[in-house]
Amino acid sequence: MIGLSAQIALGVTTWPECAKMSGAWDTLFFFGSLVGMAGALSSRGLIGALSAFAKTQLDAAQLPWPAAFGLLHCVYMAVHYLFASQTAHVAALSAAFLGMMVAAGVPPVLAVLTLIFNSNLQGALTNYASAQSALYYAAGFNDMATTMRLGAICGGASLLIWAVVGGVWWNVIGLTSVAA
After folding, report:
1. Whole-model pTM?
2. What is the dihedral of CA 87, 155, 167, 73, to 10 degrees?
3. Minimal CA–CA distance to 90: which of 125, 126, 53, 115?
4. How far apart are CA 89 and CA 80, in angstroms?
5. pLDDT tens per residue, the chain (180 residues)?
């Protein structure tokens, strides 16, 4: 908003020009609302309760940390379909998933880095996954079904490549040692 105000004040653009860009305003309002809702879910304790439940289930399953690590990353990616932006998803869930991973024995540095990497793989999953995907979808390149299908294919392929190639690399550089 500061940048837009500066452009109007300096005569780079005018308010009537800006007002004509309803899609941009819709996107700004939409994403702002979603980030607020994610914060509300967290502050109301829902995310903490879900995290505690998942931790209890992981403890009961007695999974070795690599299995818990893989499972949690698959769930983290799949749950992104319930969130309408990467920002809202990361704000609401990354700390909870980090806590679950560390509690399951995942080396903390590996857990932090891979949650960041995983969050970036989700940018094209849906028409609402990220600001970029919303703009591509709004441009009309694909219909909804094609967007969702391609998002699932690309997301799954990216996660698989990331896990296989990344897993080997993380082992080579020592991120998978429990003392990391």
Report:
1. 0.70
2. 50
3. 115
4. 6
5. 788 788 888 888 888 888 787 666 766 666 666 667 667 777 787 777 777 787 788 888 888 999 999 999 999 988 887 776 787 788 778 888 998 898 888 999 999 999 998 888 887 788 777 777 777 788 888 888 998 898 889 888 988 998 899 989 999 999 888 654
